[in-house]
């Protein structure tokens, strides 16, 4: 090989940050997060069976998908690892709602975030639109996990 050859590499990977981390199933508790069927979920119920003739005690998890609200269940041996998503919650002030369904949010450092759509849940959508139309200052929570984002109303701040 000569030094004059031009080598090109094509990268198909992301920055390398993992969307999940392993945690022993026996240590996951109610209120924690868990990946079930490749969906980030919040655990609402945990029950553990005793060790049987086949070895491991089993953990039965009942969880709610944090993005679509669907109930999912999984059974994992308590000594095995399961995936736990990195979940981030950030609060923003709602500045504007565009006609095409995108929201404009004020970040902590004074910039705007304009790449999120209104939620599809009808009751939440009505709350946000009605509160905004009434001139209330709305604070919303944006949850992110595994590359997905979810907009949620956290509280109303009423201006007199």
Automatic annotation (TrEMBL):
The keyword Disulfide bond is annotated on this UniProt entry: no
Gene Ontology terms for molecular function: ribosome binding; translation elongation factor activity; translation initiation factor activity
InterPro entries, per database record: IF5A-like, IF5A-like_N, IF5A_C, NA-bd_OB-fold, Rib_uL2_dom2, Trans_elong_IF5A_hypusine_site, Translation_prot_SH3-like_sf
A Gene Ontology BP annotation from the UniProt entry: positive regulation of translational termination
TM ranges: 138-159
Matching PROSITE patterns: IF5A_HYPUSINE
Composition skew (Basic and acidic residues), residue ranges: 1-13
Keyword DNA-binding: no
Location of region: Disordered: 1-22
Entry comment on modification after translation: eIF-5A seems to be the only eukaryotic protein to have a hypusine residue which is a post-translational modification of a lysine by the addition of a butylamino group.
Domain Translation initiation factor 5A C-terminal, chain residue ranges per copy: 86-154
Keywords: Hypusine, Initiation factor, Membrane, Protein biosynthesis, Transmembrane, Transmembrane helix
SUPFAM superfamilies, per the entry: Nucleic acid-binding proteins (SSF50249), Translation proteins SH3-like domain (SSF50104)
UniProt xrefs under PANTHER family: TRANSLATION INITIATION FACTOR 5A FAMILY MEMBER (PTHR11673)
Protein family: Belongs to the eIF-5A family.
Job of this protein: Translation factor that promotes translation elongation and termination, particularly upon ribosome stalling at specific amino acid sequence contexts. Binds between the exit (E) and peptidyl (P) site of the ribosome and promotes rescue of stalled ribosome: specifically required for efficient translation of polyproline-containing peptides as well as other motifs that stall the ribosome. Acts as ribosome quality control (RQC) cofactor by joining the RQC complex to facilitate peptidyl transfer during CAT tailing step.
Name assigned to this protein: Eukaryotic translation initiation factor 5A
Lineage: Eukaryota, Viridiplantae, Streptophyta, Embryophyta, Tracheophyta
